[in-house]
Amino acid sequence: MHLRMGIKLPVEGEASAGADVSVAATRSGRVEDTPVDIWVRVAARRGTSTAVVTSRTVDGVFDPRTGSGNLAVGVDRKRILTEGLDLQRSRNIDVSCNAHLQRCENVVLSQSARLSAVATGTALVAEGNYSSASLDFSNVVRVEQKVTRKMNVTAALAAPFKRDRQASLSLSYAFNW
């Protein structure tokens, strides 16, 4: 059983907080685990009726049993460049910490840019990530093509500037039921 409880404040944007409570039991009915996660979300959006829309989010979750927590902060900016081109840029930082160990285990910095041709449904996407846990920088370049309203084809090249780069081609189809 899983229960999500929380409050949402009546402010501009979004501000909410609460707790997720779960109960797991054996077939005999003995309770095995009762995890509780505390979460918070704050989001704001500016420029919804202009050529530039900026969204900012802060998400956090904390597990008091393990002392582990995660905080994610992000900024997303969408801009109409011309009548036929849109540009979307995203920057995020994600920090994972443990209160019992009194240290942060991982910081992930990520950034992406998407240039979209509105008329054709074609997008050129570049993404980059850095993880402090693995001391690794990863990047991906991909071309996305919308074939139909529910079907996309994606060609991607991971680690394009390294010798061990990997190419992939994927087809996705979405349906509702």
Short description:
The chain is an all-beta fold and 177 residues long.
Which key phrases capture this entry?
0% helix; single chain; mainly beta
Describe what this molecule looks like in 3D.
This protein is an all-beta fold and 177 residues long. The chain has strands at residues 2-9, 14-22, 24-25, 31-33, 36-46, 52-63, 68-80, 85-98, 103-117, 122-131, 136-146, 151-158, 166-173. The protein starts with a strand and ends with a strand. The strands form two sheets. The protein has an eleven-stranded antiparallel sheet, with no helix packed on it. A two-stranded antiparallel ribbon has the order 3-4. A hairpin with a 4-residue loop joins strand 6 (52-63) and strand 7 (68-80). It has one domain (43-173).
